[in-house]
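Expect chain and fold; thus:
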Amino acid sequence: MIDKIDRSIMTILQSNARIPNTEIAKQVGMAPSGVLERLRKLENHGIVEGYTTRLNAQALDFGFAAFVFVKTDDMVGENKTAKLLAKIPEVLEVHHTAGEDCYLLKVRATDTKHFATILREKIGKIKTVRATRSTIVLETMKETTALPIESAGDANES
């Protein structure tokens, strides 16, 4: 069971995964050993899956973003195409969707030419891909992987 302290610890980690354990302990009012024990429990239960670094896509010349809807010839329940799409380095996310399309991808590229190459030479070369539709991102107002842990806990406790 995840309690309020666990949610606080996760919220702190989402804002800074490199924060020292002692600082987390200060912020939640616990001993560092207690925080470490809770972190290990969260990791062992698969709630905390890992610690990552967020890079600035613009600064690394990957400022072009697009969402690509993909239709495939996969049989119901197959995920061969999804596995192949996930292997493409510029594909950051692969989501199996309900509706007209089979998958929704988030793709990062250096520019439109690079994006066209990804569509043609990487996604388009997968034999089960039947069609794609792309939506180009003009400007990003919010992009995060952080979950609203604190507010979700408040809703569950009411």
Observations:
- The two ends are 16 Å apart (CA to CA).
